[in-house]
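How a chain folds remains the central question behind the approach discussed here. No coordinates are needed to read the tokens, only the vocabulary itself. For completeness, the protein is quoted in full, as a sequence line and a line of structure tokens:
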Amino acid sequence: MNEFNEIHGGDVSLSRIGYTSLIRSLVKNGQIGDAIKAEMYINEMEDQYAEGDEMMKPEPFVYNMVCNAYAKEGNVEKAFTMFNRILTLFENGDKEMKPSIFTYTTILNALANSTDNGAADKV
């Protein structure tokens, strides 16, 4: 949130919808480095949720968006890291986080578009 506050000059508090919109715009922008910024915002949402703010729980499609952004950047390793976060949440009992067809397609596309011929072996 620090970067957001620096840009907009103040102490701004975002809702889940605000964070989701910010993440969506970063992912849609598609510049190198935007995926890591989007992941940072997911982390902030998760922190607030862990502190008891039930409204800040990131929705499954938000994780998918960031996973897809990493895949488009060609960062297979980070795409798999996001995929594993989704999987871990699901395996730990969060049934809303069940990986979707979109999640699996994103991972397959990340591997297919990777310039690293050994990417599949590394993950």
Q: What stands out?
A: Residues 101 and 107 are 10 Å apart (CA to CA). The mean pLDDT is 86. Residues 2-117 form one domain. The chain is about 70% helix and 0% strand.
